[in-house]
Specification:
Layout: E1 3-9, E2 16-18, E3 41-46, E4 56-62, E5 69-71, E6 92-96, E7 103-109, E8 116-117, E9 140-145, E10 157-162, E11 166-173, E12 176-183
Antiparallel strand pairs: 1-2, 1-3, 3-6, 3-9, 4-5, 4-6, 6-9, 7-8, 7-9, 10-11, 11-12
């Protein structure tokens, strides 16, 4: 199955966008470019036919305005204030309800903007405002080559501090810090 490389996860709005030629427009950066910091290298099945109707979903397209991968039958909502523009888009197929080899699971479809996003720790930022809404979404997987930081997001770092009375673990995620304290 032919795959198109060059897809990235935006660390600001959490969508999958096509990155080699342009960085699109991100709702979390006031319509500025998407931010690939912490992203691995993703590829999406491109201009092929479905081989497994139970575990693949077609009708995904690239938006020429925001660069997001979105589910085309819904047309969604682009950050530019209109439906996504599929001019020049190929036809994309995603793994659905299954996780092929070398793929990252956990991707979702947003019912408001129709984009594919990785919920991670923040839920991302939707072009319609607020967080992405995965209500009604299946589970999607995207082919992925992780960088040293890991699956689409920087690896959390941990600091441990222990005294006679408490044991504290602080975990730093890209958009959140979690501190857990246990009494000893």
């Amino acid at each position: 199955m032919p795959h198109q490389e060059g897809w990235r996860w935006c660390s600001l709005c959490s969508v999958l966008y096509y990155g080699p030629n342009a960085n699109g427009h991100c709702p979390a950066s006031n319509n500025g470019p998407h931010n690939p910091n912490g992203s691995g290298d993703y590829s999406v099945s491109h201009n092929d036919k479905i081989h497994d109707t139970n575990h693949q979903q077609e009708n995904w397209r690239w938006c020429s305005h925001c660069a997001n991968l979105h589910f085309a039958p819904e047309h969604g909502h682009c950050i530019r204030g209109a439906p996504h523009n599929t001019d020049g888009s190929g036809h994309y197929i995603l793994a659905h309800q299954a996780v092929p080899d070398h793929a990252q699971a956990g991707w979702k479809w947003c019912k408001n903007c129709s984009s594919l996003f990785f919920p991670g720790t923040t839920g991302g930022v939707c072009a319609r405002g607020g967080k992405h809404d995965p209500t009604g979404s299946g589970n999607y997987a995207v082919h992925h080559k992780a960088h040293a930081a890991g699956h689409g997001q920087p690896a959390p770092t941990q600091q441990t501090q222990q005294t006679q009375q408490t044991h504290t673990v602080t975990t730093h995620y890209p958009n959140m810090i979690v501190t857990t304290t246990h009494r000893t």
